[in-house]
């Protein structure tokens, strides 16, 4: 794998690569507990793990087992295992939207600098959505699956590392208007609108901006949430974005 550096600031606060990896470790452990509770087979070297065993996994083991379990499950497996949580999630999104009617969206942004990976290669990967779609679970512990239908992505993940999983569709929208400043020094930008599976607007648009820097690229990874979304979801998704882009960088470094 090509070596790379990764720097992140959220609301002016630096988050080191090591700190983000530590947060990821705790999310891997949490998600393994949730998967086991939902009925997934959580095992290592052919040995089924108890909840106590999961708590004793080291960071590398937790990552490997977490990714392996989520890779082994189909989209329908996930939907069946988390059926009640997904239904509850849809209700919460509708309630948040109803309580937010007429109020401004809450924005969250993670500012990231990556060196050792070229801007051109990274942007091309983002445009084609490969190799990222090839192994969505490896990007973040809270990613369960993703599928592509034309230009629309559909998947299950935990938003803001808060609560349980949600199933969403993400569709690109040119010139998307969001309460995130468009920085014209970032030449590559794209936005997308998130909806529930039935087409209900979740009012959780994504907005990403990128620019080249010496030996790499800078990213403003952003998204928004309804005004009534819990603070923990909004603040947690800033870290979610940072960990996700660390996963993107790791995948890109391995691919190139």
Give structural notes:
The chain is of the alpha+beta class and 256 residues long. Helix content is 39%, strand content 27%. The chain is built from seven helices and eleven strands. The strands form two sheets. The protein has a nine-stranded antiparallel beta sheet with strand order 2-1-5-11-10-9-8-7-6. A two-stranded antiparallel ribbon has the order 3-4. A hairpin with an 8-residue loop joins strand 7 and strand 8. Helix 1 crosses helix 3. The longest helix is centred in the C-terminal third of the chain and has 25 residues. It starts with a strand and ends with a helix.
Which labels suit this protein?
256 residues; alpha+beta; nine-stranded antiparallel beta sheet; 11 strands; globular
Please specify the SSE layout and strand pairing.
Elements: E1 5-10, E2 13-15, H1 17-37, E3 43-44, E4 47-48, H2 51-55, H3 59-72, H4 75-81, H5 83-99, E5 106-115, H6 119-128, E6 143-149, E7 152-157, E8 166-172, E9 188-196, E10 206-213, E11 216-225, H7 231-255
Antiparallel strand pairs: 1-2, 1-5, 3-4, 5-11, 6-7, 7-8, 8-9, 9-10, 10-11
Helix pairs in contact: 1-3, 1-7
